[in-house]
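4.2 Preliminary Data

To establish feasibility before requesting continued support, the project team ran the inverse folding procedure on a target of 230 residues. The structure was first converted into the token representation described in Section 3, and no sequence information of any kind was made available to the design step. The complete token record follows.
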């Protein structure tokens, strides 16, 4: 997998960037790209090394452009020890790791090996059915089996999993028409994954879900929920 990776280096120091590029090519049959100054993101790469001494507006701009070029791009920051990298850890950039100058060959080999393994894992996960949507310009891919329920919130819906609550513009009516049959309306404000229902509590008019979650259901949807839960 490493041999097939498309890699690039962007550096504020031309000589240092060329050195990192040369060493990356020791682990791959493909030539790595080298960039300086402003970068328009015209070419997408699998792995992008963003190398700098101290961050500035240009460095942040390039980092944003890298992330916009693809959600699956592995973005590695390479900075001086003690440099402030906190400004890069924001939703619009989301770096995958941090390395420090001087970069050692062993460190490059290890990180490329880890990236290769992670890409293999993600490729296998892509075969799993998932729900894909965008929220505030960021794309999300959530396995359908992990979704507990959707909740209406004005012109938005909230997607709930065991560990996340994500909100974006959509409607329960639209979701009911595009999701698999195990996703059913249980209330005017809720759409539930029937596979996650543990108990239908008729007295309390609520559904008990995996993880202890409870959501309401209404009588008009009771039969549909029962049929879906089985």
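Position-by-position output of the design step:
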């Amino acid at each position: 997998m490493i041999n097939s990776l498309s890699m690039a280096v962007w550096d504020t120091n031309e000589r240092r960037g060329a050195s990192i590029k040369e060493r990356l090519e020791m682990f791959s049959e493909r030539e790595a790209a080298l960039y300086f100054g402003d970068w328009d993101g015209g070419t997408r790469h699998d792995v992008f090394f963003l190398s700098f001494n101290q961050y500035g507006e240009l460095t942040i701009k390039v980092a944003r452009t890298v992330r916009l070029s693809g959600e699956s791009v592995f973005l590695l920051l390479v900075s001086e020890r003690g440099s402030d990298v906190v400004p890069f850890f924001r939703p619009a950039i989301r770096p995958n790791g941090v390395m420090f100058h001087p970069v050692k060959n062993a460190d490059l080999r290890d990180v490329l090996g880890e990236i290769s393994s992670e890409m293999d894992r993600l490729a296998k996960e892509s075969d799993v059915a998932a729900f894909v949507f965008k929220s505030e310009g960021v794309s999300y891919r959530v396995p359908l089996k992990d979704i507990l329920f959707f909740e209406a919130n004005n012109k938005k819906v909230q997607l709930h999993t065991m560990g996340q609550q994500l909100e974006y513009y959509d409607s329960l009516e639209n979701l009911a028409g595009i999701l698999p049959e195990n996703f059913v309306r249980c209330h005017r404000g809720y759409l539930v994954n029937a596979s996650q229902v543990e108990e239908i509590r008729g007295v309390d008019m609520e559904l008990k879900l995996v993880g202890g979650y409870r959501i309401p259901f209404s009588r008009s949807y009771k039969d549909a929920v029962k049929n879906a839960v089985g």
